[in-house]
């Protein structure tokens, strides 16, 4: 009997955090119901016997740029961010932000999950950051309050918020828009004050951030794929023992998987929800008319990222 009780307690305690479990802060820009939120919650569950992961959603700890700076300084332990902000710190990551580079989610995932993606994680893991895993947001689309956008000519005169990412800004200029780079936290007020006409983001972001409450027209442009990253502060990482490091890596892989599963769902039924919420959707966007002005085979990108790398990405199934 005593044996049974001890065994039961053993099972029970194996699911309870050790009393002195290290408390770990993870920040992200979106809410807890978003793809970032479910990913962070999954990591918290995975780590429940090892580390005490505390979730800080909704940019409470600052914009993505500020969070990356905090990781580097060691004042934040973990963050989930887009490449939108990260490209300022690791310019080479911008290769994945090129317009019309990836054909679909499978193509993007195949690239990120093979040696190209792994090498990029290694490249990011310098100057105070350790890149744990690739998550994602889906493909980015355009919204605005002025008029439906279907072809290149419709872009003229539209002031669109882009991320503060040199590749995104250049692509938006090439596609005929006036880009207005700013952090995501500034977007709702910039739109309501008429400082900008629109923004661009994935369906998952538009739903979780309720973009439909302040934007009327949605154009399914698929202009960029939007990778996301689970990052850890090097300062924090070095404070962990080998078991905790292994647990963290495992948890990040599970968190990334959860994020992709969420995005899959949003990509399959999110659009109908945005329509139900009243957005007017242009589905038959003439993507070629935009891609003709913002091509990923532009020699500018070859020079920046290397022609071989771009060709290798394009040739990946
Ligand atoms: O547009 C952005 O800056 C990003 O996609 C967001 C919404 C902060 C999520 O990473």
Automatic annotation (TrEMBL):
Keywords recorded for this protein, A-Z: Signal
Biological process terms in GO annotation: transmembrane transport
Pfam families xrefs: DctP
An MF annotation (GO) of this entry: carbohydrate binding
InterPro entries given in the database record: DctP_fam (IPR018389), TRAP_DctP (IPR004682), TRAP_DctP_sf (IPR038404)
One GO location term (cellular component): outer membrane-bounded periplasmic space
Cited PANTHER family: 2,3-DIKETO-L-GULONATE-BINDING PERIPLASMIC PROTEIN YIAO, PTHR33376
Name this protein carries in UniProt: TRAP-type transport system, periplasmic component
Organism: Taylorella asinigenitalis (strain MCE3)
